[in-house]
Amino acid sequence: MTGRGNLIDGKKISADIKDEVARGVAALSDKGITVSLAVILVGEDPASQVYVRNKKKACEATGIRSVSHELPESTTEAELISLISDLNADDSIDGILVQLPLPSHIDEDKVIRAIDPAKDVDGFHPESVGALSIGQKGFVSCTPAGIIQLLKRSGVEMDGANCVIIGRSNIVGKPMGILMLRENATVTITHSHTKNLKNVCKNADILIVAIGRAKMVDADYVKDGAVVIDVGMDRDENGKLCGDVDFDAVKDKCLAITPVPGGVGPMTIAMLMYNCLAAAENKAR
């Protein structure tokens, strides 16, 4: 990787991973095994509907059978958990994905815990998270797993790198920190209570931003030659899609940077397909 402002192309890398998954799905198909993902959507949240549509398209592209359960907003917690129990017991289903967020009357934690860890392709079950934290095999949540693939396939050296993560969510920040430690990076996780945030970030060889605030990170946060991964999906003052990083202000300082859109986003769904294939392969062993 040479020069400045190299774009890390999530569309291209995610397409490569989906091609690899499609080959794995075809190999199982030759043995008479169909890979199947059950997707559950409760209610009519427009963003969730878009995500579910994109997941179905990715299933089609990779040869994975998609089984859709679109439930009304009025669905009770007990009804949803009963459906998950049925899917856990259904040997034809390899992965179960419950689209979040759920309506406010349903306890997300209870729902996540109801999924069989062997079918937890989102990597959110406490057993999956525990396995990750102690270095055992298990499903890794798709966005952090996708970021590792972006870095590896772009030739970014993680071993010995100083990595700073902005954000400590269970879905991105915390698992991201564990995955970077696995790659032998030195990791600092920052958040809203971190003092001197800009100074901490300026020490980063790899800066991963998942804070949920449009264009918060400008050139003052980034050292020359850093690699910047922008997990944000926000809207700017004109309603245009943007990330947590002020891309135009930062790009010329960076060795490499992910754009929004077209960076981290496509990787999340690619890694979901990867996890579905892994679930089927685990079952077939």
List the helices and strands and how they pair.
Blueprint: E1 6-7, H1 10-30, E2 36-42, H2 46-62, E3 65-71, H3 77-89, E4 95-98, H4 108-114, H5 126-133, H6 142-153, E5 162-166, H7 173-182, E6 186-190, H8 197-201, E7 206-209, E8 227-230, E9 234-235, E10 241-242, H9 247-250, E11 256-257, H10 265-284
Parallel strand pairs: 1-11, 2-3, 2-4, 5-6, 5-7, 7-8, 8-11
Antiparallel strand pairs: 9-10
Helix pairs in contact: 1-10, 2-10, 6-7, 6-10
Features:
285 residues, alpha/beta, Rossmann fold, six-stranded parallel beta sheet, three-stranded parallel beta sheet, 10 helices, 11 strands, 15% strand
How would you describe this protein?
The protein is an alpha/beta fold and 285 residues long. Helices cover 41% and strands 15% of the residues. The chain has 10 helices and 11 strands. It has helices spanning 10-30, 46-62, 77-89, 108-114, 126-133, 142-153, 173-182, 197-201, 247-250, 265-284, and strands at 6-7, 36-42, 65-71, 95-98, 162-166, 186-190, 206-209, 227-230, 234-235, 241-242, 256-257. The chain has a 6-stranded parallel β-sheet with strand order 1-11-8-7-5-6. Helix 6 (142-153) crosses helix 7 and helix 6 crosses helix 10.
